[in-house]
Amino acid sequence: MAAPYTLRWGIISTGWISTEFTEDLLVDPATRNVNDVAHVVEAVGSRSLESAQKFIDKLKAAPEPYAWGVARGALDKTKARASYQEVYDDPDVDVVYIGTPVTHHHKDAKAALLAGKHVVCEKPFTFDLAELDELIAIAREKKLFLMEAVWTRFHPISYAVQDVLASGVLGRPRRYAADFSKDFKLETKPISHRLLAPELGGGGLLDMGPYPSVWAMLTLHQHPLNTKRTPPKVVNTYQTIYSRTGVDARSRWVLEFEELGAEGILMTDMLCQNFKEGAVVLQCEEGDLVIESPPQKPGVFHIVPHEEVDGVKERSTHDYTIPAAQGHGLAFEADAVARCIRDGQTECPRMPLDESRIVQSWFDAVRKNGRTVMRDMEGTAGK
Ligand SMILES: NC(=O)c1ccc[n+]([C@@H]2O[C@H](COP(=O)([O-])OP(=O)(O)OC[C@H]3O[C@@H](n4cnc5c(N)ncnc54)[C@H](OP(=O)(O)O)[C@@H]3O)[C@@H](O)[C@H]2O)c1
């Protein structure tokens, strides 16, 4: 068997999701039945050298399943860097992973692309569509790989849900409702917190919106009967203001998928918990698809018959829970990135840039129609 292609990562920032992503790079790929690609971490960049070093030291002491990669040298050459730019300029780094707050994504991704690096950027891709379009233009001009890190797309459950829809058993989709809600106990958080501070892209829309959106893209936009793949229209929006900082506590928007004759309502909420048994409900002519919470990493979905006897006859439950041995579930996207870069692709077919653009445009529409302090905020495109 040929040796796996090893992708060399540079990690930007040392916060929560960067930690989880880097831990998952250390998990044995065989736990995911992967043997063609592997990952090493070449550099970690932070605004402080101390934080970068602490991040690496903590990873080196991580328990299983992360200790597997440490023992096999995935962190042996990892350099701590006192600035992000040093990571972009590191000739040993193939691809940069960006885990900074959303209002920093554009400038961080742009600097990495301009330094000639492939880029994977956390969701939501950018603050607004103008920023994203500039990144896409730079990546295309420089023939570099660029992808939004929507991990859910790469989970086994996402492929399984799409297989059910492709089988035709549920028939034509009619109505969709998806929700990502979490009671963040906002009163206990300082107003400087990423979720509350407008300058860091606070509010539920940008932080949580990618997840009701990803299922709308996978189940409706990519539905086999949606042949023209016309971007759905945003036909209504509403936001509730969180008074301490003026960001959105709740956002709702309605999408129309004209060719399918289907409509969907998408919701985010920072004040209450998701309904465990159904974060996503896709109602179709012959039966319904119900995906359990949490929508960013659901384990289980159900196929549910209608009350009438026509169509799907029996309820069935499908469990794709990601086992602890596979880590947090972020390595599936990393494997896909490695394959794309190995094969010289500049875009990931599973997470196309056009689909990131569509979702980004929904966020722009909801924000600009709303009443939050971020309504008229502009991103850093062109700067
Ligand atoms: N895929 C997922 O499941 C998932 C989950 C959570 C979050 N996210 C996304 O990942 C991004 C980061 O979220 P997070 O929860 O990891 O945030 P976090 O814990 O606050 O970490 C963000 C990091 O960004 C760096 N940073 C640079 N400029 C900053 C500034 N002005 N203020 C604060 N931090 C700054 C800091 O690292 P240094 O000090 O090292 O520079 C900080 O540790 C967001 O876009 C979020 O939407 C994705």
TrEMBL record:
The protein's GO terms of the molecular function aspect are: D-xylose 1-dehydrogenase (NADP+) activity; nucleotide binding
Q: What is its EC number?
A: 1.1.1.179
Q: Which Gene3D superfamilies does the entry link to? A: Dihydrodipicolinate Reductase, domain 2, NAD(P)-binding Rossmann-like Domain
Q: Which residues form the GFO/IDH/MocA-like oxidoreductase domain?
A: 161-289
Catalytic activity field: D-xylose + NADP(+) = D-xylono-1,5-lactone + NADPH + H(+)
Asked if the keyword Oxidoreductase belongs to this entry, the reply reads: yes
If you read the UniProt record, what top EC class would you report for this enzyme, in one word?
oxidoreductase
Q: Where is the Gfo/Idh/MocA-like oxidoreductase N-terminal domain positioned along the sequence?
A: 7-147
Q: Provide this UniProt record's keywords sorted from A to Z.
A: Oxidoreductase
Family under the similarity heading: Belongs to the Gfo/Idh/MocA family.
Q: What is this protein called?
A: D-xylose 1-dehydrogenase (NADP(+), D-xylono-1,5-lactone-forming)
List the source organism. Vanrija pseudolonga
UniProt lists the gene as xyd1_2
